[in-house]
Design a protein that fits this description.
By secondary structure, this protein is of the alpha+beta class. Helix 1 packs across helix 2. It is elongated, with a radius of gyration of 20 Å.
Length: 142
């Protein structure tokens, strides 16, 4: 298992995000799609978010990332969408005509966690960590 290390932490936190363009306009193609990919990469790198896999489609983005424990999923999406939106409008002024409200991305996003350790594996480990007491889901070792 590939763990990441912080100054006081060892972690493996993975998220799969899906977010769409406002009104599902199919604008993420050609130079706009390439620039969006570049901006998302830069943003993730700046905040120590490792991109494990990603796909930019014409109207949405799939992003599978490993993130540090001090970054909530909502914070990751806020930073990625905010920075890429602002810079896409700078790079492609014609987008402002289509997105007159200066919002490139739709409001919400999809997020699911992913990892290699299952709930069953954790319970199994904790059940056999020491002598269990019956009907005790949170116990001490003595």
């Amino acid at each position: 298992m590939d763990y990441r290390y912080g100054s006081h932490t060892v972690f493996n936190i993975q998220y799969h995000f899906v977010f769409v363009t406002k009104y599902r306009y199919q604008v993420l193609k050609g130079d706009v799609g390439l620039r969006a990919r570049e901006l998302i990469r830069e943003t993730c790198q700046a905040f120590e978010i490792e991109i494990l896999k990603g796909v930019i489609s014409k109207d949405h983005v799939h992003l599978f990332v490993s993130a540090p424990p001090n970054m909530a999923p909502s914070e990751i999406m806020r930073r990625v969408k905010e920075r890429s939106s602002t810079r896409l409008f700078e790079s492609f002024p014609d987008l402002k005509k289509r997105y007159w409200g200066r919002h490139f991305w739709a409001r919400g996003y999809f997020c699911v966690t992913s990892g290699k350790v299952t709930e069953e594996m954790i319970k199994e480990y904790l059940d056999h960590h020491f002598e269990p007491k019956v009907d005790d889901s949170f116990r001490t070792e003595y």
